Amino acid sequence: MEVLAFESLGARLQEITRKLGGKARITESDLKEVMREVKLALLEADVNYKVVKEFIASIEEKALGQDVLKSLTPGQQVVKIVRDEMTGLLGGVTSKINFTPNPPTIIMLVGLQGSGKTTTAGKLANLLRKQGKKPLLAACDVYRPAAIKQLQIVGSQLGIPIFANENSKDVVTIVRQSISEAISKLNDVVILDTAGRLHIDEELMQELKNIKQSVKPHEILLVVDSMTGQDAVNVAETFNNELGIDGIILTKLDGDTRGGAALSVKKVTGRPIKFAGSRRKIKRYRRILSG
After folding, report:
1. Is it true that domain 105-276 has CATH number 3.40.50.300?
2. Contacting residues for 52 by C-beta, under 8 A, at least 6 apart
3. 3-90 maps to CATH 1.25.40.10
4. What is the per-residue pLDDT across 13-53, written as a single tens digit (0 to 9) for each?
5. Measured between alpha carbons, how far is residue 142 from residues 72, 113, 170, 214 in Å?
């Protein structure tokens, strides 16, 4: 993950580590003070309040009920518990794309307008190509001006083929046509760049549900702008409840030093963060821990 995403939170936790490091033993009073500082650090990092509450309760239970390892000071043990719990928020293991044994694998990218879906589609296609796949990008946004052109530019920059039908407004038909194109051209992955809105509405969700029902994508990945903070959590929760998602892609993670969205969306939705993107050049893309 980009270092900047947890710069502020990391600095606060390091300070807590320093304070605990010299203690030969930790009392319940000490632990209460530490938990207060950890709670403030997480809230300042814009982590969802309910997530923080559960996080602190879990740490307190383990810190009070666990013997201190002989090789560690009590302070280090508490810090280890905090670190382990934070890793758990992200999942702890790498969550991968689920590829079908009968290609093409259909990956449907969804999210609000401005979240970075189109650029993410290109980055993901480029990453999968490096892994030996032969992706096709499908332009499924028939509403936003120049949306198709933007995807064509992204595809041209990367040398990845694009399917578009600028004469149709029937998104389900376009999706089916893109899959037929992939089969005829032996593309083993189709990435659907769907339309977004400035906010979640019934029309948007119905269109996405129609696509899902029609082609049954193997992966539905929600693209979330991490700089939107708590709104990112609300968006992720709503999309998951309404549509059912398989994973999350966080974009612009290098633009937020707090990182709260990354620590919240996995916990709130129960779905893994499969990738994290930065605002740097299109060829840069990172997988992050989740599961």
Report:
1. yes
2. 39, 42, 43
3. no
4. 677 767 766 666 667 777 788 788 888 888 887 788 888 89
5. 59, 13, 8, 18
